[in-house]
Batch of 3 targets.
Target 1
Amino acid sequence: MIKSKALRDSARGENCTMRLPGVCNFNPETTVLAHVPCGMGGMGMKGPDQISVYACSSCHDALDNRQPGHHISGWHMIHAIAETQGKMIEKGLVTVKGVKP
């Protein structure tokens, strides 16, 4: 399991990659690295930093079920993870052997 201060810090000032309709506040000042529920943590435990998204405070609340009534589709999660990982690769925070950004 990866825990990385650099990955967590990389969310600062980024646009939200979740952009949940009717939820997102589109405010990069509130963006954090939000952990996607993936079954790799226990009760009260966060998942790994590599399975995370850049989420504004409103989308993060929805992701963590602090905003009841908002369903998050698998498509939204997968799209947000892919976009976030792409940004991390562009920043040189995540590397893939044999691939240059």
Target 2
Amino acid sequence: MAKNKKNDNESKSTVFRVEKTKNYTVMSNYHLKSKTMSLRAKGLLTLMLSLPEDWDFSLKGLEKLSGDGMTSVRSALKELEKAGYVKRGRFRNELGQLKGTEYFIYEQPQLFNTHISDVSDKPTSEKLILDKPISEQPILGEPTLENPIL
């Protein structure tokens, strides 16, 4: 009889069942663990990463999806740009007129050392102008006081 009780206890176990939904996102936790970004910026990046690749990003669209105001969305985008998660470029036509803006969203922060138009598939007549181009620090030399040019 002791043997039957042991089998009964072994057959009783706890079962966990997870109901999975079809609409979920798998993404890196990298940005969520950042201690330098605000929750607003983390939330906006999470929202953007959850959207389909072909989603047309716009400030008004992000404002509607996030439930925050335009000022809040712009502030979060600037924070994400500063942190390297978002890169923004402006397209100008051959006359130099502003034609549009393109955002690149990354799961991990990026260092932007190259001109972003090199990776763009836009026509060559349109040039992507970086909002904050990276400039090298000029090398400052000591002027010579000997033989000044008059």
Target 3
Amino acid sequence: MSKYKTLDDLPLSLSAMDVAEVLGLSRAGAYNLLDKQGFPTLKVGKRKIVPRDKFLAWMEQHTEGIG
């Protein structure tokens, strides 16, 4: 069960584990995504985070239309 009921519940910056939970990925899958060109990852020291607004925009851009 996800701790996030809606996208509005997401924190301002997401960790790899947050991304994994939202997208239904494994931890390794999330880290692979964070390393992909074009994914909105922000490196802070050795840590990689994803700003919520950039993550939501990325999801919108990569969602295929229905119909």
